[in-house]
Write a structure and sequence with these properties.
about 425 residues; mainly alpha; Cytochrome Bc1 Complex, Chain D, domain 2; 4 strands; about 0% strand; globular
Length: about 425
């Protein structure tokens, strides 16, 4: 072959390579290569990067299947309420990602905040929008005595356990304390007659009832720890992309979705707070979210929540906790003062975010599009100091961000039967 012919062949090969590369860039979902740092970020966002479920030192029964089975039944039992109509599943609906699609949760009354989903919360050091509980079992107890949620009291619940769940309870927690002399309704609650009945009880009796009450929370927490996220289309896309494999129908992402992902980890700065496999840093941020209805009381967010957590009756450091002297670091070293806590709310996971409108702590924003617009505008907060700065995003970029967020929708993972209502005894 003559030298000119070699040059022509080389030129043809180069043209073929360039055309192939251009064609690859035009395929749906195709994109220029990812840098090493970007690949590391993609890997960190995948569920495949999720490590083992951390232990809960405050609940020695957290991973006992018998406790989870009991908690499953308690979670769905409407008898654990003041009027027999409200269960945990009333607001935390398994078919709706364990939330209720309402701006404000509705139990025996209307609450001041949005129902938060449950999947993956066993990995979080704080519960509720303001972090006023430091464990799943502590979180489960607050609504049970809230007059606008379950509206009951701990003596009633203790009697119900003794009557309907004694065998299951004692298999996990040991012999149930005697409830002789304990009235049917008594507890440190707003209801005046119930509170007075509680105050008349001897300290030892109050301690026995509160111990049963704490164990109710620990059983419910054991059940909630079994609820996790299963891979979404985004996770399958990451797996194929990082392995260099072709994308199938179940792992393909469109050009707009990939562009939205690049905005999410880049220009949009979303990853600053929504990071890791659950797309949350589990911290609290003031992002200028507008106040809810004027009819609702003022809400200072974490500024109030952290003080409630430290002083909580059922905290990690309480007598009802199973934690040791060296545990509970999150609570012991929690920051309790500072302007950054004012109207700071917990970063929610973005897993299944497209399935659970409305958004923010009191459902102030109706759609994902409105959420993206809010973060791009970075409005002044009603109080405190917002961490946001305005971001110039075009209409196409905002649409692409929303398109990416929809790829995070996926099923929940749980042991067989745990997403269904158990038969009532």
């Amino acid at each position: 072959m003559t030298r000119p012919a070699v040059w022509i062949s080389a030129a043809l090969l180069l043209c073929v390579a360039l055309v192939s590369a251009a064609w690859a860039g035009c395929r749906p979902g195709a994109a220029p290569g990812w840098s090493a740092d970007e690949r590391a970020l993609l890997r960190s966002l995948s569920l495949a990067s999720l490590g083992p479920l951390p232990a809960d030192p405050s609940n020695r029964h957290a991973d006992d299947p018998r406790a989870a089975a009991l908690g499953h039944r308690l979670f769905f039992d409407t008898r654990f309420s003041g009027d027999g109509t409200v269960s945990c599943a009333t607001c935390h609906l398994p078919a709706r990602d364990f939330q209720d699609d309402r701006a404000l949760a509705q139990g025996m009354g209307t609450t001041n905040r949005r129902t938060m989903p449950i999947a993956g919360t066993a990995r979080s050091p704080w519960m509720f929008w303001d972090g006023r509980s430091d464990s799943q079992w502590s979180q489960a107890l607050g609504p049970l005595e809230s007059p606008v949620e379950h509206g009951g009291n701990r003596a009633r619940y203790a009697h119900l356990v003794a009557e309907a769940y004694r065998a299951e309870y004692e298999a996990v927690f040991g012999a149930l304390a005697s409830l002789d002399g304990v009235p049917r309704d008594a507890g440190p609650v707003e209801h005046e007659a119930w509170r007075r009945a509680w105050e008349r009880l001897p300290e030892r009796r109050r301690e026995d009832v509160s111990r049963i009450y704490a164990n109710i929370g620990k059983a419910i927490a054991a059940y909630e720890r079994t609820i996790a996220h299963a891979p979404s289309r985004f996770d399958r896309w990451v797996e194929a992309e990082l392995a260099g494999r072709p994308h199938t129908a179940g792992s393909a992402m469109t050009r707009d979705e990939v562009a939205g992902l690049r905005l999410f980890i880049g220009k949009g700065s979303c990853i600053n707070c929504h990071n890791g496999p659950l797309f949350t840093d589990d911290h609290f941020h003031n992002t200028g979210v507008p106040a809810a209805s004027p009819a609702l009381p003022a809400d200072s967010g974490r500024a109030t929540g952290v003080r409630q957590a430290v002083a909580a009756e059922f905290a990690c450091t309480s007598r009802y906790s199973d934690a040791g002297a060296d545990d509970c670091a999150e609570l012991r070293f929690a920051v309790t003062e500072g302007e950054e806590l004012v109207r700071a709310y917990k970063t929610p996971s973005l897993r299944n975010v497209a399935e659970r409108a409305p958004y923010m702590h009191a459902g102030q924003l109706a759609t994902l599009e409105a959420v993206v617009d809010h973060y791009a505008r970075a409005p002044r907060p009603p109080a405190g100091h917002s961490e946001l700065v305005p971001t110039q995003l075009s209409a196409d970029e905002r649409r692409q961000l929303v398109a990416f967020l929809r790829t995070l929708s996926g099923p929940l993972a749980a042991p067989p039967g745990h997403l269904a209502t158990p038969p009532r005894r």
